[in-house]
Amino acid sequence: MTTSETLSQYEKDMAAVTKNGIALDYVKIQTPEICLAAINQNPLALLYIKEQTPEICMAAVTQNGLALLYVKEKTPEICLAAVTQNNDAWKYIKDARTT
Predict the structure, then answer these.
(1) Three-class DSSP labels, 10-62
(2) How far apart (Å, rounded) are the C-alpha atoms in residues 23 and 63?
(3) Alpha-carbon distances, residue 12 vs 26, 41, 46, 58 (angstroms)
(4) What is the reported pLDDT for 2?
(5) What SS3 state is found at 93?
(6) CA separation for the pair 72, 52 (Å, rounded)
(7) What is the pLDDT of residues 40-69, one digit of tens each?
(8) CA distance linking residue 39 with residue 69, whole number of Å
(9) Which of 45, 62, 87, 96 could form a disulfide with 21 if both were Cys (CB 3.0 to 4.6 A apart)?
(10) Do 10 and 29 contact (CB within 8 A), yes or no?
């Protein structure tokens, strides 16, 4: 694949996730920029992110606390942000006594 073909695919992928974040499910090369664009369009696109980062997860839950359901590594900071955005997100936090 040449650089121009990669760039062209990047531009297509970016355009797709900017219109519909769930299109991230079909993106083969998920860059942090493409993932954030998908999250900005639809925080629940977090479900389709192959390599979640704390920053991407935080961006998702600050827009929609219920995206916490799809966070793989729930840190106290991410959980707090999720519950602050939507109090119903508490149901996606495991009780520490049961683990």
Answers:
(1) HHHHHHHHHHCHHHHHHCCCCCHHHHHHHHHHCHHHHHHCCCCCHHHHHHHHH
(2) 18
(3) 11, 16, 19, 26
(4) 54
(5) coil
(6) 7
(7) 999 999 999 999 999 999 999 999 999 999
(8) 14
(9) 45
(10) yes
Structure tokens at 31: 């860059």
Model's pTM, two decimal places?
A: 0.85
Count of CB atoms situated within 10 Å of the CB of 16: 19
Looking at residue 94, what is its pLDDT? Answer: 83
Residue 34 CA, chain-centre distance (Å), reads: 10
How is residue 22 written in tokens?
A: 């769930």
